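This entry is listed below:
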Amino acid sequence: MKFFNTSQIRELDQYTIEHEPISSIDLMERAARALCEKYLSAFSGQNTVCILAGPGNNGGDALALAGLLLIAGLDVKVVLLHLGKLSDDCETNKQRLLQKFPDCLIELKTEFIAPKITNDTILIDGLFGSGLTRTLSGIFADAVNWINQSGCQVVSIDIPSGLQGEENPDLMIPIVKANRTFSLQFPKLSFLLPENAEFVGDWDVLDIGIHPKAIEEMLSHFFFIVESDITFLLKKRPQFSHKGTFGNALIVSGSKGMAGASVLSGKAALRSGAGLVTVHGPECNRVIVQSSVPEIIFNTDKADKYITEVVEIEKYNAVAVGPGIGAAPETVGFLRETLNNKMSSCVLDADALNIIGQNKELLVLIPKNSILTPHPKEFERLFGLCRNSYERILKAQRMAQKYHFFIVLKGRFTLIATPDGNLYFNSTGNSGMATAGTGDVLTGLLTGLLAQGYTPENASKIAVYIHGLAGNIALENQSKESLIAGDIIESIGKAFLSLHNLRVN
């Protein structure tokens, strides 16, 4: 799903108004209907509402929503805050509301006076939308502070007031802390940044009918990976196939005490559909790996405790290097020699990335179209410190373009930065996956998909989506506290099956 920055969203609104055609006030009414339907389904039985509306079009949305909630029979109190001037559509919706419900509206222009509410009141924040470019002050800042101190559940329309759609360099300014955010048509980039989680809460995207041609034609580098994006990427396995049809994946992993990385990544590669999976590791791990996963071929290094060399690496359809390999001098030498030998594109993870981070000259040796899978700290070891997540995203975009490789930056909304400058954010996953070994599982999935002939871009999209989906499925039998990497592997099959069933249906 393509999404856009805030200035582009304004252009899309205007295109819809001009080409549908539809008046701006009717587009606002359409948004209000979507908001009302979502609110009534999300807060069934909670009938006391206080709506705080601002002077612009976000306030206009809020006033239109107020009218619909009143018609639905809810007890609605509306507080309209402004400094004497309203946008045209906000003024229109104010008059419409007063004509039908003359006693529901309180206007505040100079001083914020807290409305009387009960503990079970739902507060709806319609003060300012995604077009805000300034810090809230005065009556509006007072309103935000009151909302945050109220103890009530808070729902924000489109975006929490005070939060901007992209970069938010100062999070100490007044910003509404919403429990839920109902975003209109698209998510906002700021929703995907961990610093903003306390403001955005849980969020939903509501379709308000923005013109599909405008969405199709407007250029964007932002994409949110959803179910429909993945189902059509999956290949059909031919009826007359054999294990060679689906490739031979090699995973160079493990060192003394780190056999688990080989087990997890190897098993995940098998579950991805690869025909053959070979793990190259030190002799000390051979019995552990082969007894844990007998389907894996184990290729023993000449060293007993760490990796020093891999022969005939070119015979494999896909290669991953890094899980649990450590940073012994001999292993560093192996990685340097392997990259110097112009190996084809590969997956680099974990200790391979840490070695490169300590030996920056190796960056230029990474083959084009390789996939790097750092977590934020590994990313900064490779490319330098970042002030915030927004800066990290932009740096990932630049580095992927500069070195022509794919960066899979792991996190709640795992990011794929591609060599052509696109940024794909994954929608699946949960906080229970923040546990040891889940990165090894992702590496195995990536390698197994590459071995089957998927492009690096498609392998990255499928792997991160399946990885997160399997984590979500695993929660059906686990808690977020108890979830472990092995649970994710055991749910990979169900994740694939759910996508195949969607395609059939």
